[in-house]
Design a protein that fits this description.
Blueprint (H helix, E strand, L loop, with lengths): L2 H10 L14 H8 L5 E10 L5 E7 L10 E2 L2 E3 L7 H13 L6 E6 L3 E2 L4 E10 L12 E8 H5 L5 E7 L2 E10 L2 E3 L1 H14 L3
Pfam family, one: NUDIX
InterPro entries: CoAse, NUDIX_hydrolase-like_dom_sf, NUDIX_hydrolase_dom
Protein name: CoA pyrophosphatase
C-alpha cells in the first residue's frame, strides 16, 4: 500500500468522534423497496490486517443461517441495547464470529451508514487488525474466514457493475471476485462507498 493510498484511506473516514447517523446513503433506493419503516441498527467491522500490504478480513456465512446464508460478509450484526454504540457492536460481533480479541483492534473511523434489503441500517467501522491476531470461525455462524488484499479492491479493473431485478425494480449492483469468493450485496456496496470516499471509483 502506497503512502498516498494510506493517506487517502485515513482521509476518507468519518472520525471516531463523529459517527454517522441514519438514514443510509442509499435510503432513497431502499425507501422505494421497503417504505419508510424504521431500520434496525447494526454494525460491521471493516477490518484491515496490518502489514506491508494490508488485507481485508471477510467471512463466509454458514449455509444454515436464516438470512444471507453462504454469502460473504463483514463480521458484524444487530446492535444490542446494551452495546451503546456501533463500535461496541462491531467489536462484540467480531469477537463472537471470528474470535477477534478487541485488544488487537485499532479503530480508525467510520464509513457512511448503509441500509440493507433485510431492513437494517448498518454502520461500518474501519479498523486496523494486528498482523498476528489469530482468527477462527464460530461454526454456528461462520463457515470460513478469509482475507483479500486491499490493493486488489482499490484496482478499478476488479470492480464489476451489473443490474439485478428485485420486486420489479432494476437495482444497480457491484461485485468483486477474488480467490473463488464472490463479494456482492451489502458487503460490496459498503466497499464501493469506501472507494468513492477515497476517490478510487
Amino acid at each position: 500500500m502506497t503512502e498516498g493510498q494510506l493517506s487517502a484511506l485515513l482521509t476518507a473516514l468519518r472520525p471516531l468522534s463523529s459517527p454517522p447517523t441514519a438514514p443510509g446513503w442509499n435510503h432513497v433506493e431502499m425507501a422505494e423497496l421497503l417504505g419508510d419503516t424504521p431500520r434496525s441498527p447494526a454494525a460491521v467491522l471493516v477490518g484491515l490486517r496490518q502489514g506491508v500490504q494490508p488485507r481485508l478480513v471477510l467471512t463466509v456465512r454458514t449455509d444454515h443461517l436464516q438470512a444471507h446464508a453462504g454469502q460473504v460478509a463483514f463480521p458484524g450484526g444487530r446492535t444490542d441495547p446494551e452495546d451503546g454504540d456501533a463500535l461496541t457492536t462491531a467489536l462484540r460481533e467480531s469477537e463472537e464470529e471470528i474470535g477477534l480479541d478487541r485488544a488487537l483492534v485499532t479503530p480508525l473511523g467510520y464509513l457512511d451508514c448503509f441500509e440493507t434489503i433485510s431492513g437494517f441500517c448498518v454502520t461500518p467501522v474501519v479498523a486496523w487488525i494486528d498482523a498476528h491476531a489469530p482468527l477462527y470461525p464460530a461454526p454456528a455462524e461462520v463457515a470460513e474466514v478469509f482475507e483479500v488484499p486491499l490493493a486488489f479492491l482499490l484496482n478499478p479493473a476488479n470492480l464489476r457493475r451489473y443490474t439485478m431485478e428485485f420486486r420489479g425494480h432494476q437495482r444497480p449492483m457491484v461485485e468483486f471476485v477474488h480467490g473463488g469468493h464472490r463479494i456482492w450485496g451489502a458487503t460490496a456496496a459498503i466497499l464501493l462507498n469506501l472507494l468513492h470516499r477515497m476517490g478510487c471509483a
